[in-house]
Amino acid sequence: MYMPDFAYHAPQTLDEACTLLAELGNKAIVLAGGTDVLHKMKVGKLAPENLVSLKHLDDLRTIRHEPGRGIVMGALTSHNAIYTSKLLQERFLSLPMAAHTMASNQICNMGTVGGNIVNGVPSADLPPILIALNASIRLVSVKGERTMPLEDFFHGAAETVIAPGELLADITIPDQPTTGSTYMKFGLRRSGALAVVGVAVSVRVAGDILEDARVVLASAAPTVMRAKGAEDFLRGKKINDDLLAEAGEKAAAASRPRDSIRGSAEYRRNLVGVLTKRALRKAIDEGHV
């Protein structure tokens, strides 16, 4: 299918991009990696009058550590750049490993962390592990900028709180006490599959006590979600298999999956329980190192 005609814009700076978006309003769509937008245009799901490419905004492709702040990733950082980042491998290996599960090498070379977030789909792989790591985001526009916890960004199925004219500029993972973290997902093929269910976990362990935990679910509700009941249940308790199994049950009970071609709601709910227990065990083992 042929794409509809559109005007193409390639601003040279972030300020120029924000100005363009303010001028064009709802007649424009942002192009980052293009793995989702261009596909939707080809199949007729999107027909923007204007396409605003961010390809020249190299400042949004960096991964750096800022003392007192943490790891800062530009929104245009590709999935493969996350996977190969020595900085991330040393500090938060769970994030590169999550990026490695996402898609083919070609798509991972083009797809961006910002696109994976802004799409707002509940099956996205990077938001769960980023939320588990307590990430925040920075949104910019001609009106200024605002920051928020990533978990507050998602409003509904494929809906976010991003305002007209805003761009996602970067994501920050704060410096934090020694933790273990992981992301596990179940898909319908060995690699590059959408998550039937995904579970991200981060923990802080002291001896045999689980001091803190964050449990985040993908494809288990209309949006990516934290299983706060499971987190509260785990906090401060002695680690054992029964504890982790019960936490999995609480996460499953909190989930709100739907029936789809990839799995029934009941099947997904069961997967939440199984993957939560496994992810907790893996993260705890890592946190003991």
Automatic annotation (TrEMBL):
Superkingdom, taxonomy of origin: Bacteria
GO MF entries: FAD binding; oxidoreductase activity
The entry's keywords: FAD, Flavoprotein, Oxidoreductase
Classification via Pfam families: CO_deh_flav_C, FAD_binding_5
Segments forming domain FAD-binding PCMH-type: 1-178
SUPFAM superfamilies associated with the record: CO dehydrogenase flavoprotein C-terminal domain-like, FAD-binding/transporter-associated domain-like
Annotated PANTHER family: XANTHINE DEHYDROGENASE SUBUNIT C-RELATED
Protein name as it appears in the record: 4-hydroxybenzoyl-CoA reductase, flavoprotein subunit
